[in-house]
């Protein structure tokens, strides 16, 4: 039984460096088992409820498949089909679902909503993305970087783009494992102050350097990892035209990546928009490991499910 048993995963701010390393080690072990075709079903009889208030390909499929592989069951619940869509409160939904299932994964808008759900639920709650945080993604990113670079501490990660949920989680995750993290974003699109503060605080323990800058060309000099995400996140569709022009200088293209290390790797949480935040020649190049990264969602989430549930 793990030290994380019964806990929630709302944000990696709440996880220690050691807990993060434990999850990554377990994920690597589960990936090995999976590859060897070994049956491993410690979640037999357990059910995960998955509530989606936004679309998803990776999160939905990888959590569902992960539960199946571990011998458990999952329920896909579109919020429009739940009574939440007709005004039942989050608190009541949490108290009811706690009677039926063993954990809840939710993808929603305001981060305060998942905090409220976790407050009223008596079972673990897992963040499948909020407007502010995407911790499962960041754990998959760490596993991918570790597989490719054989270490995390001392790696230079540069995220180019919007200071959004993905940037927040990545910055926290990097700080906790001693990886340098620079966020290069347009003025007015910086990561939220509390995330920067938490990252800087964690970095004091690990020696990581946390930087926010507005100059992408300077930021990527000597980068081991270049990471980007969409310019318009889910829920921001009405801003998309403005964002398209504001973010143009932050496009990850051949010219920008020239300045990174020769063996730099490119990552993107996906879905990607070729020709916007990244050009096809970068995301489809030999430096890009975005599908290995997407694949690792399955393994880290299985590790999370196991750690929180048994
Ligand atoms: N990266 C990610 O979370 O993808 P989905 O939106 O497809 O779940
Ligand atoms: N920042 C993106 C990530 C999608 C996985 C969004 O929130 O839409």
UniProtKB/TrEMBL annotation:
It is found in: Cytoplasm. Keywords: Cytoplasm, Transferase. This is Ornithine carbamoyltransferase. It catalyses: carbamoyl phosphate + L-ornithine = L-citrulline + phosphate + H(+). L-ornithine binds at residues 165, 229, 233-234. Its EC number is 2.1.3.3. It comes from the Bacteria. SUPFAM superfamilies: Aspartate/ornithine carbamoyltransferase (SSF53671). One of its GO terms (cellular component) is cytoplasm. Reversibly catalyzes the transfer of the carbamoyl group from carbamoyl phosphate (CP) to the N(epsilon) atom of ornithine (ORN) to produce L-citrulline. PANTHER family: ORNITHINE CARBAMOYLTRANSFERASE, MITOCHONDRIAL, ORNITHINE TRANSCARBAMYLASE, MITOCHONDRIAL. One of its GO terms (biological process) is L-arginine biosynthetic process via ornithine.
